[in-house]
Amino acid sequence: MKYSKHARKRKGQRGIQDWMVELAQDRGKIDGDHAVMGRREIMGLLADVDRFRAGLLKVLDKGGIGVVTKGDTVITTYNVNKRRRHD
Asked: How far, CA to CA in Å, does 24 sit from each of 42, 69, 72?
């Protein structure tokens, strides 16, 4: 991403980092040429992160999961709770 001299100066003065700009552009509300990452968008993303974390913890409790596919069809799934031997 290219920044104008003005944008670099304001970004520095306001403590805004490059990754924050990218986050606003990727996940913020787009209004014409503005990308706004407001409280509503941030709270929504935090809720998504919480759900994702809860799901990961469930998978961790199983020791992980395995999925066997053929093409685009799932053949079987299993918990990875112990070391499996592949012959």
From this structure: 10, 37, 35
Return the structure tokens found at 79.
């918990």
Inter-CA distances, 46 with 16, 34, 39, 41, Å: 19, 22, 10, 9
Q: Which residues pair with 78 in a beta bridge?
A: 66
The DSSP annotation for 23-69 comes to HHHHHSEEETTEEE--HHHHHHHHHHHHHHHHHHHHHHHTT-EEEEE
- State pLDDT tens for residues 57-73: 999 999 999 999 999 99
Residue 67 near residue 59 (C-beta atoms within 8 A): no
Q: What is the pTM of this model?
A: 0.70
Q: How far apart are CA 6 and CA 36, in angstroms?
A: 19
Q: What is the C-alpha separation between 64 and 58, in angstroms, rounded?
A: 9
| Structural domain spans, the chain | 5-79
